[in-house]
Each structure stands twice: as C-alpha cells, then as structure tokens.
Amino acid sequence: MNLTDRVVVVTGGAGGIGAALVRRFVAEGAAAVVVADLAADAARAVAESAGPQAHGVGLDVTDEDQVRALVDDTERQYGRIDLFCANAGVATGGGIEVDDAGWDRAWRVNVLSHVYAARAVLPAMLARGGGHLLMTCSAAGVLTAVGDAAYTATKHASVGFAEWLAITYRDRGVRVHALCPQGVDTPMLADGLAAGHLGAKVIAASGVVLTPDQVADAVIAGLAEERFLILPHPEVADYARRRAEDPDGWQAGLRKLVRRLTT
C-alpha cells in the first residue's frame, strides 16, 4: 500500500504509537488523516501539529454508534476510507485479581472496538473491492504479557479476529494487518513502570524498547509489502517459534525472569 493521496483513520491517535502513525501518514502524502481519541483535545492537538491534512475528533471506541458515525462522516467528507487503524488499547497491570469492570474494559477496548471498526468499514471496502485494516494487537497477542492476564487474553483474541478477517476477506480485496510490537516507549509503558507493574518491568528488562516512530517505520514497510503480521521487533517471530516448539521450556524461561524481577 502506498499512502499517497489515501484517506486514513487512526483511533487512539492522541499519543504513543497512534500519534506517530498520524505524523508518518501525513509525511507519506496522505490526502486526509482523521485522528480519533477519547481525549478529543489531545487528538486535535496531534492533528494540528501533524499538518493540514489531519484533523482530530473525539471518539469512544467502545461505543459502536460512535464508531459507525465516525466512519460515515469520514466517507461522506472524503468519499472513502482507504486505511482504518484500530489502534486504541488498554492494559490492566494485574492478574486474576482484576475486577470484572477491568476485564470488561480490556475486552471492549482491545477486542470489541476492532469488531465495531470492521463492521463499519467493511461494507464500503468490499463494494469498492479494496481497503486496508490495521489492528494494533501487541506481541502479547502471539506471546504472553507477563503480569497482565486481561491484556494477554484480549490481545490473543484480537490477533485471532484479525486472522479470521484476513482469511475471510483477502480474496475480496481487503488487506488486514496485525501490528504486534513488544516494548515501545509510550505512556502505557511509562505508567506501568510508575505503578510497578510486572509486565512493564519485563519489557524494560528486555533492553529493546522502540520509539513510536520506529514502530511507524515498521508499519509503512508492512503496508508496502502487504504483510499480515507486522513485527517491529523481529525477534518476536523467533520467540513465537520457540514458544510453539517447546512451550514448557518457554514458560520455564519466563518463570525464571519473573523470579529475578520479583525477588
């Protein structure tokens, strides 16, 4: 996919990976980039700094009516959506002790928001015979987010849903991409470290924390090559193979790491 003259929507666009994607899409020559986030003022600030092609709007990705309205408004204003980036995500930093409200929020933001996006954009994409869906799923979706049970479970679900979409709609012209970064220098990681969350400590200990701009670089390359799985940390592919080939050994290694970080 070439971003020149494309119409793009980015949810969770007010910071972190989302803001980096917005800036990069504008730099690549996108005709329009809609920056959507629950923090509407921050979304507008990102859009203003990115350039005249971008504009910011408020959006609760867990509200299907709002997602559908955003898609309808964008298609009405620009005629189409070429790329929809379902990028919003939340972590809990906890295990089974996280209450039902925390699990429900993780499920709604990390999984159902992708379902709502697909329902909203697919009809027009299928009618045109083309379009792209990028879903930020995290390396936790192919590995495990140590210390965060809900994040692990919902990110696995988001990868599964993205793969289902890719299998179902690729032959009808719609390309689906699962973006699965590992450690990225975002507010989510910073907040996790400040709160002492185990998962954030594991990421920091890995020694490979990318900038959001580096993730955006990987997205541009992945879109150009029309890859399903976009791995800004290429070592994640090796980790996934090791996990599949020797699950007991993989788990033993993670338990050892947890013991080192918690004793």
Automatic annotation (TrEMBL):
Residues 6-190 form the Ketoreductase domain. The keyword Oxidoreductase applies. The keyword Kinase does not apply. GO terms for molecular function: oxidoreductase activity. It comes from the Bacteria. Keywords: Oxidoreductase. Belongs to the short-chain dehydrogenases/reductases (SDR) family. This is SDR family oxidoreductase.
